[in-house]
Structures are given as structure tokens and as C-alpha cells.
Write a structure and sequence with these properties.
This protein is α/β, with parallel strands linked by helices. Helix content is about 40%, strand content about 10%.
Length: about 200
């Protein structure tokens, strides 16, 4: 009988689970992985914090908006030269060109706000129609800013009765064709005569 009891105790001892260091590491990783999964699920279930956009302008809370002004203006052959990749303002009818990489780099530097100083959506001269290429450029610029998770304000430079000469200065625009010097928006009589 003694022999049987000894066998039972050996059998009992051999079936005890042993925790070696490898098992402890594996078990720890499984537990940590589960915790991380639960944290991700929990964060996804939390309501997203909404930003009160008007509070961004409240300087009593410190500076909230950080960013840059970007220029997007009409290009003119007489001012900018022939369309080419070498032209400083860019080859298109709006310049300078911006890419998603440019906007993303601005965001990576800590910006959250862009003022887009852009050519107006309507032609500068009568009959003042929508310029689809200008609208497409503005839409593309705003899409890039949204993709970079930033806010934007649009400041229209030109439009009915106001050309780019309002911004480029008389020393540059003085020798240009009168169409480039359209400032009739400031002369109510001329502007209203065009419209009515």
C-alpha cells in the first residue's frame, strides 16, 4: 500500500502546472493586449468632443488659432509673363500653386487655421458670370485644408468691378491695359450702369 500512495503522490506532483518565465511573459502579453483592445473600444464609444468654433476667436482663453495667409490670385501675361513651370506664380490661371503636402506641412508645424486670399468667383468685368475654373481651384484648396484638419476663412480679392490691380500697386499696373485696372466697384455710377 505504501507503494501505491507514493505513486499517487508522484502522479499528483507531476500534474501540477508549472509557471516558467516564458509562460509568465506570454500570459502578461495576452493580458496587456486585451487591455489595449478594451481601451480602443472604450475610446471609440466615447462621444467626440465638439469644438465651439466661436470660442476659437475668444482671445480671453489665449491664442486658439494659429496659421497663415495664403495667396491665390489671377495670373496675367503682362504682369507674370508667359505661362510656364518656371514662372514664379506658377503655370496656371491661379497662382501660386499649393499641394496637399504644402498644407500638411503647415498643419504639422502646429497651424490649425488658414486665411485663403483668393480670386473672386465671378468675372471682374461685365456680365459678371461665375468663373468655374476659379471656383474649382477654391474648392480644391478648401478640400486640402479640410484634409489637413484645419479651419479656413476665405477672403475674396477680386470680383465684379474689382481687378487684381487693387493689390499689385499702381507702379506695376500703370502701364497695363485698362481691363487690368478695373476699379469701377469704387465708382458707384460706373458699377451700377454695368449692372442696370
Amino acid at each position: 500500500m505504501e507503494y501505491e500512495d507514493d505513486d499517487k503522490s508522484r502522479l499528483h506532483r507531476s500534474t501540477k502546472p508549472s509557471l516558467n518565465p516564458r509562460s509568465i511573459i506570454y500570459l502578461t502579453l495576452v493580458i496587456l493586449g486585451g487591455i489595449i483592445v478594451l481601451m480602443v473600444i472604450y475610446s471609440e464609444l466615447q462621444p467626440t468632443q465638439t469644438i465651439d468654433k466661436m470660442e476659437l476667436w475668444n482671445s480671453c482663453n489665449g491664442t486658439q488659432l494659429r496659421g497663415a495667409n495664403i495667396l491665390q490670385r489671377h495670373t496675367y501675361f503682362e504682369i507674370d509673363g508667359p505661362s510656364s513651370e518656371l514662372r514664379p506664380i506658377g503655370p496656371g490661371i491661379i497662382g501660386p500653386p499649393y499641394t496637399q503636402n504644402d498644407i500638411d506641412r503647415l498643419s504639422a508645424l502646429g497651424a490649425n487655421y488658414v486665411v485663403v486670399s483668393h480670386a473672386g468667383l465671378f468675372t471682374e468685368t461685365f456680365p459678371y458670370t461665375l468663373d468655374q475654373s476659379i471656383q474649382d481651384n477654391l474648392d480644391n484648396t478648401l478640400d486640402m485644408i479640410a484634409e489637413a484638419d484645419m479651419f479656413a476663412t476665405i477672403s475674396l480679392r477680386t470680383g465684379p468691378g474689382r481687378s487684381e490691380s487693387a493689390f499689385i500697386g499702381s507702379e506695376i499696373s500703370s502701364g497695363l491695359d485698362l481691363n487690368y485696372n478695373d476699379m469701377c466697384v469704387y465708382n458707384r455710377t460706373s458699377y451700377y450702369n454695368d449692372i442696370f
